[in-house]
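User: Could you go from structure to sequence for me? I need the amino acid at each position, not a summary. Structure tokens:
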């Protein structure tokens, strides 16, 4: 099972540092509201991208899920569509949400 704190504090910042083209390609922002774990923001409007704890003003896409469901998504990024159709993963911008697999996988 994925460790959410480790994902947002270590794994994702390193991935963005190693792949700055992701921020250039996506060029938007995400806010993750993970019930039972916290809030994180991923700002890909800056290269190589920034990950911070807490909310942000006007994110391009807000992703909401229970901690257990988001951990499932991290363990298997292909499960995103299933979680979405079951109502366990909510997004405010479906187009931007489709780019999530690039940064989560």
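Assistant: Here is the amino acid at each position, in order:
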């Amino acid at each position: 099972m994925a460790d959410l704190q480790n994902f947002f504090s270590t794994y994702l910042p390193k991935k963005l540092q190693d792949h700055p083209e992701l921020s250039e390609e996506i060029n938007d922002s995400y806010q993750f509201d993970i019930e039972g774990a916290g809030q994180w923001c991923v700002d890909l409007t800056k290269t190589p991208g920034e990950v911070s704890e807490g909310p942000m003003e006007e994110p391009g896409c807000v992703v909401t899920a229970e901690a257990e469901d988001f951990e499932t998504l991290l363990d298997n990024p292909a499960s995103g569509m299933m979680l979405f159709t079951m109502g366990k993963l909510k997004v405010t911008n479906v187009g931007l949400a489709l780019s999530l697999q690039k940064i989560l996988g």
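One structural detail worth keeping in mind: The chain is about 45% helix and 25% strand.
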